[in-house]
Write a structure and sequence with these properties.
With about 230 residues, this protein is an alpha/beta fold. It has two domains: about 5-125, Response regulator (Rossmann fold); about 130-225, Orthogonal Bundle (Arc Repressor Mutant, subunit A), CATH 1.10.10. It is about 40% helix and about 20% strand. It contains eight helices and twelve strands. It has helices at about 10-25, 35-45, 60-70, 90-95, 110-125, 155-170, 175-185, 190-205; strands spanning about 5-10, 30, 50-55, 80-85, 100-105, 130-135, 135-140, 145-150, 150-155, 175, 215-220, 220-225. The strands form three sheets. Strands 2-1-3-4-5 form a five-stranded parallel β-sheet, with helices on both faces. The longest helix has 16 residues, at about 190-205. The chain is elongated, with a radius of gyration of 20 Å. Bound molecules: calcium ion. Calcium ion binds near residues 53, 55 and 56. The site of calcium ion has 5 residues, from loops.
Length: about 230
């Protein structure tokens, strides 16, 4: 099976060059030009490895690594960070947040390939976890299987994505707008009333398992999933 690599780099020329070389080496390559785009990709896909540039606009590569390491599903993905020579003395900071390896720009493709192989060898011993767990609910994001107290629950795709969003953000207030952006996408023309309709359906589904109390309505603000 081909390995999937996510490249996060704002400089188009470098990103395209890396993408081209890694595709030649038979990897599946996903690209992101900044951290927000990367996080969006990571919502749907768990890559086998990520190459992240330190110097990204708005949210730095370092901050992105921190967020990846905090996320249960993708926290074990090996990360190779690209740095400019001027950032070399900061490398220890990266190791602190969980960078697995470094390369200084300009990147030698042969060396990068070798380091990718080394990281993939190291990580292939661990089973990739693509499972979200809370106290009562377990969601397998690959097989789309949901277990509530060990009983299987089936949901339509929208309710599945809603529950996934809630499970990823337990005990956090999510506004209708948050939910809309994540489940339907930022550019969708869905009305916020639609969110309520699907929440109602999800709550009904949870009720069959006596778990409707987990999905709280926060009056005038949005919804909260209790873990
Ligand atoms: Ca950069």
């Amino acid at each position: 099976m081909k390995n999937t690599i996510l490249i996060v780099e704002d400089e188009t020329a470098i990103r395209e060059m890396l993408t081209f070389s890694l595709m030649q080496a038979d990897y599946i390559v996903l690209q992101a030009k900044d951290a927000m785009e990367a996080l969006k990709v990571l919502d749907d896909v768990t890559p086998d490895l990520a190459i992240i540039d330190w110097g990204l606009p708005t949210i730095s590569g370092l901050e992105l690594v921190k967020r990846i390491r905090e996320n249960d599903v993708i926290s074990t993905t090996p990360i190779i960070m690209l740095t400019a020579r001027t950032q070399e003395h900061d490398k220890v900071k990266g190791l602190d947040v969980g960078v697995d390896d470094y390369m200084t720009k300009p990147v030698s493709i042969n060396e990068l390939q070798a380091r990718i192989k080394a990281q993939l060898r190291r990580s292939s011993g661990f089973k990739k976890s693509n499972i979200l767990k809370s106290e009562n609910i377990q969601m397998d994001l690959d097989s789309h299987q949901i277990l509530i107290d060990d009983t299987e629950m089936s949901l339509s795709i929208t309710e599945f994505n809603l529950l996934k969003l809630f499970m990823k953000n337990p005990n956090k207030l999510l506004t209708r707008e948050n939910i809309l952006n994540h489940v339907w996408g930022r550019n969708s023309f869905v009305e916020s009333r639609t969110v309520d309709v699907h929440i109602l359906r999800l709550r009904k589904a949870l009720k069959k398992y006596n778990k409707e109390h987990l999905l709280k309505t926060v009056r005038g603000a949005g919804y909260k999933f209790l873990d």
